[in-house]
Amino acid sequence: MKRLSLVAALLMVATALPASAEDAPGVFKIPGTDSTIKFYGYIQLDGTLDFSGRVANIEGLDWATALPGVPNDDSPEAKRRKGQLYMTARTSRFGIQTSTPSDMGPIGTRLEADFNGPNGDQSETYTNSVVFRLRHAYGTIGNLLVGQTWTTFLDFGGAPETVDFNGPGSLALVRNPMIRYTLPVGQGMTLALAAENARGSQFGGAKYQTLPDLHANFGYSAGWGSLSVRAVTQQYNVATGADTASKSAFSVAGAVSGQFKATANDTVQAQFAGGPGIGRYLLNAFGAVQNLPGTDPAAIGGNPGAFRIEANGDLKLINVMGYHVGLTHVWNPKTRSNVVWSQTFIADPKVDGVAAGAETQKTLSQAFVNTFFTLSKTTEVGVEYVWGQWKDFGSPAGTGTQNRVNASFHYNFF
Prior knowledge:
- By secondary structure, the chain is mainly beta.
- About 5% of the residues lie in helices and about 50% in strands.
- The strands form 3 sheets. A 16-stranded antiparallel β-barrel has the order 2-4-5-6-7-8-9-11-12-13-14-17-18-21-22-23. The protein has a two-stranded antiparallel ribbon with strand order 15-16. It has a two-stranded antiparallel sheet with strand order 19-20.
- The N terminus is likely disordered.
């Protein structure tokens, strides 16, 4: 109740005070201070209709497109889960931003959350209760950022637009606690350096980290579009047995991405990313290799898509590559469409000389086709078809296929 009262009081202040002419829309001066505050957010209804197999636990895992969780086409589960409709408002979000002048320059803060946390036994079964979850919580002083936000390995300039909340599985959909400093290095050029939280023992087990993930992101933007070149280092330490010393492995991986304005109405987005142990930063890879022998999350602390334990106890980083290409076409000021193609490859066909087989996913391919309609300044509708298919290392290869229609109805606060 105290939290609700505080939010209500802040909202009353915000609505009572008009923004000054120099302020951006929605920004208000806080009485008695030098600070400004902005409230933002939106209400959104998402709907999905699956015509083939879908993820089994759509509430506890992921209701949005999560191709690795689609069941094998020949399994009873795939046949049971055809033709299922799901609707949710859980992606609706609320955020606050502040700015305060200081001798060091403007000090900014951002706090944002939505309701898209894993929901367990609630939602459809009861009253559509959902879990409030933290998205962003950080402060900035000049070029320094401290807190939680999108990983430095994610380039939104090279990210295609989808109705689907996740989008192509080649994206690094990770929000990390971090310390990041961004340096301007030339006209239109920046270099962001960050130390980000390393994934620990999410599922229990014996994996631990002593070093953060270290990131570098060089960005360049101009009239033709933008370019991002990125690298990340990861240090893995894993106790591979109850009575054995931990084993270590070091990874350097990278990505290049960007967007190009081909014509006045057409923009191309593209990305390639890959390297050993990079599965954490590629959505499809994170889920795809958890069935690979030696990657049991319960046994090793879990980082599917990153590493496995061989029979002799050695720590082996899994090589993963992924790319996507997207095209945005603007038909008119109120209508735009996107076509996206994405693939992820697990380059680890053998474990101790034994070929990986059924349900060990090797290649994941996805296609998105959508159109967005702007109904008013604050309201938008999106409709999309999604096709996806994974193939495993079996001979002949097993497959899991997704055919889905997505729709969203989106209302901005203002």
